[in-house]
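Hello,

Our lab assistant flagged a job as stuck in the queue for most of the afternoon. It eventually completed. Since we weren't sure the result was trustworthy after the delay, we are filing this so someone can double-check. Below is the sequence as submitted and the structure that was eventually returned. Let us know if re-running is recommended.
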Amino acid sequence: MIKPLENFYRIAGIDLGTANTLVYIKGRGIVVDQPTLVAVNNRTEQILAIGEEAKKMLDRVPAHVTLVKPLMNGVISDFEMTEEILKHFLKQASGNSFITRYRLAAITIPTNLTEVERKSVEDAVISAGASKVLLVEEPIASAIGMRLPVEEAMASLIINIGGGSTEISIISVGGAVKSKSIKIAGQQFNDDIIKFMKNEYKILIGEPTAETIKTTIGSAIPLDERKEIAVRGRDVSTGLPKEVSVRNNHIRGALQKSLRTISEAIKELLEESPPELVGDVYEKGIYLAGGGALLKGLDQFIAKELSVKTTLVDDPLTCAVRGLGIIIEDLSRYETILSNQNRPMPINL
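-- returned structure --
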């Protein structure tokens, strides 16, 4: 029998990423998709904006305002700001001022977190308003979001390219058999473009402009058509405004070092894996997820580098949070998988 107050305590799935945070509410779906960013007034320590509103301020704020990214490479670097972000997004997700607590929150974490780092994630979510916390490794959440048979004794290679890190994992029998995490992902792609524009075109640009260049003309492989984009920034020598025209093949060249680092990391993981797992991967192929996987032609680049079929999943940006949604909608089914990744705790509600 449902308790009278039960409807006022919801269950959430949180994909807390370096670049974006997504929240799934049981029975409602994805209700929050916002940048993981906070604008803070240094003089008063007041939070001015969170999420999309804070992103609009990037490279456009006075000296006394700081834009804080509380996660670095998928790991919490600023506990207080992470707590504030989670509080804000969970309140936004509830859509109801009467709901101040969540019965349960499932949250994604990188595979290589230490026990201390896992505890900091758990504490941040509890401080933000959750009574219980389930830590779900991101590759597991992504695999479930892809509807892959994670419980079966058949290996799947998942590559989740986020904002701050790339998680590479071979999943089998409900767990990550082999995993590798590298600090090359979407943010590094932006940094590569900023550095290239400074060195080759002698123009300084900010992160929003680099992101626009990446999404508009960036690619991992040569494109059939030639593309150009007008880029505005500050001239390195004069300090005055400057505009240059940049071609897609130049940006592709700027990204090659990072892309090859990712492909080398995948090769290393496969070389360290048991032959049976590698055989399964060759048969089933590689699955790409995460916002960074949206770089044009990245799936074809990896397929060529490794000679293994590579599939970009549908809506890769929401893949992990959709996996969390599937988990919290049917907790009893995934209890065994979750118990492998958490300290013993009852999850039946």
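-- support follow-up --
The delay was a queue issue, not a problem with the job. The result is valid. The chain has two domains: 6-141+319-339, 149-312. Residues 1-6, 344-348 have pLDDT under 50 and may be disordered.
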